[in-house]
Amino acid sequence: MAVSDTKKQNLLSNKWFLPLSVAIICFVTISLYDKSIKNDYLDLDDMTIIVRNYNFIKDFSNAGQAFKQGVFQVQGETDTLTSYYRPMVTLSFMADSYISPKKSEYPIPAPYIRDNIFYHVVACILLLFLLLQLKIPPLPSLALSLIFAVHPLLNQAVAWIPGRNDSLLTIFILASFIFLLRYLKTKKTWLITLHIFFFLLALFTKENAVMFIPVLFIYLRFIQKEKIAVKTYLALGITYVLCILPWLVMRHIALATNADRSTLSAVIKTMASNSPFFILYISKSILPFNLSVMSVAADTNYFTGLLAIALLLAGILLSRQKNLHLIIFGITWFLLFLAPSFFSSFSGLEHRAYLPLLGVFLVVSQFDIIKQADFNDKSSSSKLGIALLGFIFLLFFATSFKRLSIFENRYAFDQSAMEGSPTALLPCLYLAAHYEQEKMYDKAIDAYSQGLARDSTYDLTYLNMAGDYIRLKNFKEAEKILRLDIRRSPNNSLTNFNLGLVVFQGDTNYSEGVRLWKKSIALDSNFAQPYKVLSQYYQALGDSSNAILYRNFYLKKRVQ
After folding, report:
1. pLDDT (tens place) for every residue of the chain, 560 residues total
2. Which residues, other chains included, contact 231 with Cβ-Cβ below 8 Å and sequence gap of 6+?
3. DSSP string spanning 438-499?
4. How far is C-alpha 217 from the geometric centre of its chain's CA atoms?
5. Is residue 448 assigned to a domain?
6. 372 alpha-carbon distance from chain centroid
7. Which of 22, 254, 492, 515 has the fewest CB atoms within 10 Å, measured from its CB?
8. How far apart are CA 487 and CA 472, in angstroms?
9. What is the DSSP string of 133-175?
10. 112 is a domain residue
């Protein structure tokens, strides 16, 4: 026989339960992620946002400007990453920079990672409060919060500095939701004020916060037991509109110079190509093993995804005491908060599952085997539930502890991305670029070779690989790579130009080089570099008329 609701409520009313639970969450989370404080930058957005933009974020007088520009805006440079408006994330980096050691102009990553851990702790504590607010029994609420704290899918959000945009978003969404639930019970004005305040903070953290509005109305319509008056719906709706309008205006102004102008057909195509990520994220949420920090849709393991869905369905169907409305709400939460990520052409980063994952936890909270877990209940079902929760916690903790090593530095991260996403080209390019920075050209060539084996259609892979061969004075291999690219894409002006340089330098085949440079101009008359080298070539020959002619063309094209 399951423990009575009265006994469960006694546990919650125990004055030590909440402070002890908070202490346990803090201890477990810090114990897991403490070693991450020693990590280096991964050179995946963090170098742009923090290192290159350090002069901006270390000065709190720029706080207002954070609301007028994109998060990737570096002073004096063009922001090439469009549609990323994250002022609250920028402000969080400013706070970190303010308290960071001022030993040099190059900021150390430790303070930023430490605060990532802090944000994760806060999110886990708020999850505990939300589960209790939703009448989930105390022990399952604590256990699920601890499992969330150590979930391997969330490693990237904590150990990778820019991953905090999703933990911050989750903090503001949870706080806003909790205050709304409290308001519905007490009708105290200050609670609804805090609800709106945290919703605004969420909006200025990440645009996914917009999905909170349909999520809330679904909750109010189908989950909230007390009937909500129509005027309450109208008041909330008007308030949300009044929040969104200024945010939209400020976002538009901040991104006006580099706004994403993708066509509707392109957006639909992107979403369609990203649709397998629904299966991928469900799989990673339930069975977080064989993870990849840089997934691509082609790497989706449909068997694991279907197995994860089957486990969820089995848990739902076998549970007699479930709240079906709350289960549907959890599924809706997962789908709605995950959906905006699929508008991006690069949707495989795991930190994007941070907020949607809470929906899965809401579903799981309704499984009988979870709800019946209670130390005061000596029944076999309660013992089995406690054992299951304990097993999952230990398994996830061990998996995360081992996996965190991939975030130690950029090489470990890139290598893990390559291994975890066997068809993805991007990790190969990142690893090669990092080797090039250290002048390790042989290793860069190996990374590019793996990239070509995965995707032979990307011109820059050939060009960069040839460039590394040139740096090693291996003109023969450079020529071979460039001729492969020309065979695949004969009308690439840049490839023809570079091949001309290689044959000119490597085999002193001057006539072939000149022919390729002129072909490069014929393919793209606005490409300035061929004019420059032709001018230099004719100058060396003593042909001053052609040298001057091409030099004038070069100066004209360079100005254009």
Report:
1. 344 455 555 555 577 889 999 999 999 999 999 999 999 999 989 998 998 889 899 888 999 999 999 888 887 776 666 678 999 999 999 999 887 765 566 788 999 999 999 999 999 999 999 999 999 999 999 999 999 999 999 999 999 999 999 999 999 999 999 999 999 888 899 999 999 999 999 999 999 999 999 999 999 988 887 777 888 888 899 999 999 999 999 998 888 765 555 565 666 777 777 777 888 899 999 999 889 888 887 787 889 999 999 999 999 999 999 999 999 999 999 999 998 887 776 667 888 999 999 999 999 999 999 999 888 888 888 899 999 999 999 999 999 999 999 999 999 999 999 998 888 899 999 999 999 999 999 999 999 999 999 999 988 999 999 999 999 989 899 999 999 999 998 999 999 999 998 888 766 568 888 999 999 999 998 898 999 999 998 998 889 999 999 998 888 877 66
2. none
3. TT-HHHHHHHHHHHHHH-TT-HHHHHHHHHHHHHTT-HHHHHHHHHHHHHH-TT-HHHHHHH
4. 27
5. no
6. 35
7. 515
8. 24
9. HTT--HHHHHHHHHHHHH-GGGHHHHHSGGGHHHHHHHHHHHH
10. yes
Q: How far apart are CA 488 and CA 486, in angstroms?
A: 5
> Containing H/E element for 551?
helix 544-559
Structure tokens at 106: 């190059």
User: 277 is in which domain, residue-wise?
Assistant: 5-260+267-405
Q: How many residues does the chain have?
A: 560
Q: Are 362 and 219 in contact (CB under 8 A)?
A: no
CB 281 within 8 A of CB 339: no
Q: Which of 461, 545, 466 is nearest to 501 (CA)?
A: 466
Residue 179 resides in a domain: yes
Domain count, the chain: 1
Kindly state whether residue 491 falls inside one of the protein's structural domains. no
Q: Which two tokens stand for residue 376?
A: 């005061």
Run of H or E including 241: helix 230-254
CA-based R_g, the chain, Å: 28
Tokens of 434: 């990092």
Tokens 């097993």 belong to which residue? 391
The two tokens of residue 52 are: 């290159």
CA distances from 341 to 85, 203, 280, 426, 457 (A): 14, 15, 13, 18, 26
Distance set, CA 72 to CA 57, 111, 258, 343, 365 (Å): 11, 20, 11, 18, 38
